[in-house]
Amino acid sequence: MAYFDSIKLEKGMYTNGTKSFSQILEEMDPSENYRNTELEGLDAFQRQLKRFDIKVGGSRSDCVQKFFQTSDSAALFPEYISRAVKQGMEASDVLSDIIAAKTIIEGLDYRSVVSDPSDDEKSLKPVAEGAALPSTTIRTGDHLVKLQKRGRMLVASYEAVKFQKLDLFTVALRQIGAHIAREQIKDAVDVLVNGDGNSPAAQTISAQTSGSISYGDLISLWGALSPYELNTFLAPTGAMTKLLSLSEMRDPRAGLDFHSTGKMITPLGAGLHHVPGISGDKLIALDKNCALEMVQSGEVVTDHDKLIDRQLERASISTITGFAKIFPDAVRVLTY
User: Fold this and answer.
1) Cα(219)–Cα(270) distance, integer angstroms
2) In terms of C-beta density within 10 A (0-12 exposed, 13-18 middle, 19 or more buried), how is residue 323 classed?
3) With the C-alpha atoms ordered 163, 168, 172, 177, is the resulting torsion angle positive or negative?
4) In the beta sheet, which residues pair with residue 331?
5) What distance lies between CA 60 and its chain's CA centroid?
6) Looking at the chain, which runs of residues are DSSP E strands?
7) How much is the average pLDDT of 10-17?
8) Minimal CA–CA distance to 183: which of 294, 277, 324, 292?
9) 309-320 burial, b if ≥16 CB within 10 A, otherwise e?
10) CA distance 233 to 260
11) 267 to each of 151, 188, 244, how far by Cα in Å?
């Protein structure tokens, strides 16, 4: 059994094709071995930070150069960057509230499943004795899921950042993650609205009055989405202002929820998400439980060689994701 203070850290831990640095580290130093100890609650990476006394947050956080005090501690730097970027992605995360499934793949080729039942197939009719049961077809998509590489180039010399506090450096990295998350939600919206090559574009409903959104329009969306559940709205800034101006949104309880939690609800009880990247005058309604699959090739990837060798100039941070519709009828678009 390896203990956290005697593990040899090296670049090769980043080059495993199927496992991340954290997963390899966890296998070498399982967290379950630290139950009922002062290190309980820390994962293997966090124990390595403690081993080298590296504080990445708080008013007493260390400088970037603390990672480079030894060759072992330098190997932790790319993972620190990846985690900071992930924190930024999670802070700006809308995807987790609209995807029905997330699939992690090791490669760039992936075919999703598609199911587009007719109205007759959606109804479970009585079956006479001895008669065949009705069927629902689930097939593999004809086209590969389109994966997009999103990322940023970290342009800074080691000399420029080595005396920077890690908590401040983390803020900059989180912002990179937030930018990536915003681009990913734009990719997801594009698939919901225009299809993924295997599924058609979403059906569009026109507002009762051009240029405005009424409560009746929301009811029409609810009816058009049946038998799926309307539980999520995605709205650009223009649609958000129109929705929030509805008299039904001025209900005292709705206002109380908004002021106390910051979360906005709609008169139909669906979650409402502000997505500035949506183009055009449209409001997207969907059943988040069955509309969209997120496909991700690996985790956040950092240019570990350059980072460990203190060659930060133009070190890349990226992630590869794509989206596929599962049930095409589980999304509708209102244009106004």
Assistant:
1) 12
2) buried
3) positive
4) 286
5) 31
6) 101-105, 113-114, 139-140, 147-154, 203-206, 232-235, 271-274, 282-286, 292-302, 315-325, 331-335
7) 86
8) 277
9) ebebeebebbbb
10) 21
11) 37, 25, 10
Condensed to tens digits (0 to 9), the pLDDT of residues 119-130 reads 665 565 676 677
Burial classification of residue 268, based on how many CB atoms lie within 10 Å of its CB (0-12 exposed, 13-18 middle, 19 or more buried): middle
Give helix 21-28 / helix 44-51 axis angle, nearest 10°: 80
For residues 137 and 37, what is the distance between their CA atoms, to the nearest angstrom? 53
Token pair of 56 as six digits: 């990445």
C-alpha–C-alpha distance, residues 243 and 266, integer Å: 8
pLDDT tens, 298-335? 888 888 888 888 877 778 899 999 999 988 899 999 99
Closest to 218 measured CA to CA, from 186, 253, 266: 266
Tally of CA atoms within 13 A in the half-sphere of 20 that contains its CB: 19
Q: Say what the pTM is.
A: 0.81
* Domains of the chain, earliest start first: 195-293+327-335 (3.30.2320.10)
* Least-confidence region, from 138-147, 182-191, 266-275: 138-147
The residue behind tokens 């960057």 is 81
Q: What is the mean pLDDT of residues 16-40?
A: 89
Secondary structure (H, E, C), 34-58: HCCCCCCCCCHHHHHHHHCCCCCCC
Tokens, residue 10: 């090296």
Instruction: State how far the Cα of 72 lies from the Cα of 302, in Å rounded to an integer.
Output: 17
**Residue type for position 135:** S
Is-contact 184 176, C-beta < 8 A? no
